[in-house]
Design goal:
The chain is of the alpha+beta class. The protein is 42% helix and 25% strand. Strand 4 and strand 5 form a beta hairpin. The chain starts with a helix and ends with a strand.
């Protein structure tokens, strides 16, 4: 199901189990300005998520250049997006990528 949803570019449903019940929750695309504002994200984070949405990944350097901030600020912002489960961090040797969930 996860692969099929990814192929047609719709959010992957959330699976959960409560007692003897199994739940599948389908949700709309959460990467839109209205929903991101409700999460309390700052303007840089919202802009970065929306700008890099089609690429499906961000590096801290790309984010810093796009937002015109120091790399330390970029990493802080991106790590906050990871904590909010909007991005997933992928470390590869000297390059860290932040990918969309």
């Amino acid at each position: 199901m996860k692969d099929l949803c990814s192929e047609v570019d719709i959010p992957i449903p959330r699976l959960s189990c409560k007692g003897n019940d199994f739940w599948i929750t389908f949700q709309r695309d959460i990467y839109n300005e209205e929903d991101l504002k409700e999460l309390g994200l700052n303007k840089r984070q919202i802009d970065g998520l929306l700008f890099f949405k089609d690429k499906r990944e961000i590096t801290s350097l790309q984010y810093a250049e796009r937002s015109n901030v120091a790399i330390r600020t970029a990493i802080y912002d991106l790590n906050e997006l990871v904590e909010n489960k909007l991005l997933k961090k992928q470390d590869k040797a000297r390059l860290t990528k932040y990918v969309y969930i």
